[in-house]
Specification:
By secondary structure, the protein is α+β, with helices and mostly antiparallel strands. Helices cover 21% and strands 20% of the residues. The longest helix is centred in the middle third of the chain and has 12 residues.
């Protein structure tokens, strides 16, 4: 982070990154992780406070994203590996 001078004599903090991800829900977290793992610098923006990171996935209790759950087995959903 560095400061950029303004016309009024103040400073605005600026940041550089390879990618800006808008949204810190499940999709934003996953893409940010993958980008960081690929050695890219990432800035994440979200309108919610840090305590709400994960978006609606927080309220899903993991049931929507689990593999081989009892509900999936009951519906005969199978995953190939």
């Amino acid at each position: 982070m560095r400061d950029r001078p303004t016309e009024g004599g103040g400073n605005i903090p600026t940041m550089d990154s390879d990618v800006i991800v808008v949204g810190a829900g499940l999709a934003g977290l996953v893409v940010s992780y993958e980008l960081a793992a690929a050695d890219r610098s990432v800035i994440m923006l979200d309108s919610e406070p840090l305590e709400s990171i994960g978006g609606q996935a927080y309220w899903a209790l993991g049931g929507l994203f689990m593999v081989n759950s009892s509900g999936q087995r009951r519906l005969r959903i199978r995953f190939l590996s």
